[in-house]
Amino acid sequence: MDSDFGVPRELSHLQKLRSQYQPELPPCLQGKSVRVEFSDATASADPSGAHTISRSFPHTYGQPLAHFLRATAKVPDAQIITEQPAVRVGVVFCGRQSPGGHNVIWGLHNALKTHNSSSTLLGFLGGSEGLFAQKTLEITDDILATYKNQGGYDLLGRTKDQIRTTEQVNAALAACKALKLDSLVIIGGVTSNTDAAQLAETFAEAKCPTKVVGVPVTLNGDLRNQFVEANVGFDTICKVNSQLISNVCTDALSAEKYYYFIRLMGRKASHVALECTLQSHPNMVILGEEVAASKLTLFDLTKQLCDAVQARAEQDKYHGVILLPEGLIESIPEVYALLQEIHGLLREGYSVDNISSQLSPWASALFEFLPPFIRKQLLLNPESDDSAQLSQIETEKLLAHLVEEEMNKRTKEGTYKGKKFNAICHFFGYQARGSLPSKFDCDFAYVLGHIAYHILAAGLNGYLATVTNLKNPVNKWRCGAAPITAMMTVKRYGSGPGAAFKGKPAVHPATVDLKGKAYELLSQNATKFLLEDIYRNPGPLQFDGPGADAKAVTLCVEDQDYMGRIKELQVYLDKVRTIVKPGCSQDVLKAALSAMAAVTNILSVMSSPANSGL
User: Fold this and answer.
1) Separation CA 141–CA 144 (nearest Å)
2) Which HAMAP family does the entry link to (predicted)?
3) Nearest in space to 122 (alpha carbons), one of 205, 178, 65
4) How far is it, in rounded angstroms, from Cα 187 to Cα 193?
């Protein structure tokens, strides 16, 4: 019911204490003026797709990076915006709820009122459907009172969200015009921000004054690129899941007779599974990216798991904890191909009952080999992005079933002489995504809300709010904005025999980097985790005292701060211009030309499409 949105919550004593917590702001967002410095025009990270992206987004491609500055910064070219008229801003939740989403709205509202108390913030009720229907709730201090630092999206609600079809885009345009919005803030992940970029382009083409701003909020942690270090919600999800996993590890060690197969929410990428492994040290994790890179089949995975069970049995250990990302099922080559066939037949209108007989011989054989419960789940209609309904496919039960069958076979053959294999399966997802947000996510989301206002004040359209240097304290965070089009890549794909390959610009989910430091850390400890039971319990979420300021392992081990390095490079380039100018010595000029020629040649090779890794 729309009337339930925004009503005061019944808060526990802990929730009341959390609602009183005031997140800190970095110095660059403090005060009543907006100070912004623009870098050079951005380019796509995908050189081979740059032409396609620029052609698809002629009004919003190639815009510069924006850096927001503290009052004491001395930057000659910085714009200082002191006159800020009253504005009307709309905000909408898109995609899965993530802990911290409410703080984005709180930060945005606080920034609006700080810079002009006459400004108005309208929340769209029920996600994108509320945007299309122009159902709004004016956000006030009273309404926010019981939602500050709280989980969920129930302040405004959400639906199955996309803003993609011509009809949907036109409905959003009509809503923004009718409500006379100066800005529309879209809170969501990769899909939602791809839609935000398209909206921004459409609005610019239609000469609609509404500026579209994106905010990276997704529990999956897959909206990552050179500009975006982390997403709101990921820190909380991983901490809550890690405690649950650690509790299960303790149970396994106590009973010493069960293998726990735990599937974790996180869509196609395995970021949640990797982070939870590094926090809680289960015996094993199977990352979808490893499976895809090595083209591991169901048989390969079953053998890998059975060999692990057998290796532990040789040490008289008949228990263990195994983590699986929910996207694993689509990373298995033969299962992915089967899903593609099934989805194609569903699109053609075949009924679920008749699909098996329409599959190709090999796909039909695989389909019939799978347990009945998995067959039923694979036949579910795909998501809006054409992926399987990953949260509904019980990959953990499938693998546990296959491992049990193989271990029984090994027992009969005499190759395994240990105790009977027993499995217990879990899916952790819904338990965590409605959690109270961690201190990090409270601060991060609140800061992003303020940045969203700064983007509007700077007159920018089609930008994503960004914060870098996140592994350091809040007062050292770097706040800025990057054009969403600079984050886009073009994936070439075809559907059906002989289909022409085509590319569509989008912000694609970032997968786990198998050459990154976080994966390297996992690889270094994999054998120890498997055999030694060095389970680690980080405990429940802490809001104060020891552990409250702990941050994701994957955030802290990676060497990031791209935006900071861009500024550092600009400083060096400015120094070169200062030193090498008419009147400098021949030796200085020769040295500069030689160094610049070498650097240019190296960077040209590294930036060529052949070396882009695409």
Assistant:
1) 5
2) Phosphofructokinase_II_Long
3) 178
4) 8
Helix 271-280 vs helix 517-532: crossing angle, to nearest 10: 50
The Cα–Cα gap between 106 and 104 comes to: 5
Q: Name the token pair of 538.
A: 């980080």
User: What tens digit of pLDDT does each residue of 145-200 get?
Assistant: 999 999 999 999 987 678 989 999 999 999 999 999 999 999 999 999 999 999 99
Please tell me which residue, 385 or 463, carries the higher pLDDT value: 463
d(CA 466, CA 36) in angstroms, rounded, equals 14
Q: Report the C-alpha gap between 530 and 514 in whole angstroms.
A: 19
pLDDT tens for each residue of 541-573: 999 988 899 999 999 998 766 666 776 777 787
Contact of 561 with 478, CB cutoff 8 Å: yes
CA-to-CA separations, 427 to 234, 246, 382, in angstroms, rounded: 17, 14, 20
Q: What is the pLDDT of residues 488-522, one digit of tens each?
A: 999 765 544 343 445 789 999 999 999 999 999 99
Helix ranges restricted to H, 427-559: 430-433, 439-457, 517-532, 553-557
> How many Å apart are CA 334 and CA 108, to the nearest integer?
46
Helix (H, G, I), strand (E, B) or coil at 260: strand
pLDDT at res. 572: 80
**Residues 143-159 as b or e (16 or more Cβ within 10 Å = b):** bbebbbbbbbbbbbbbe
Other CB atoms within 10 Å distance of the CB of residue 495: 13
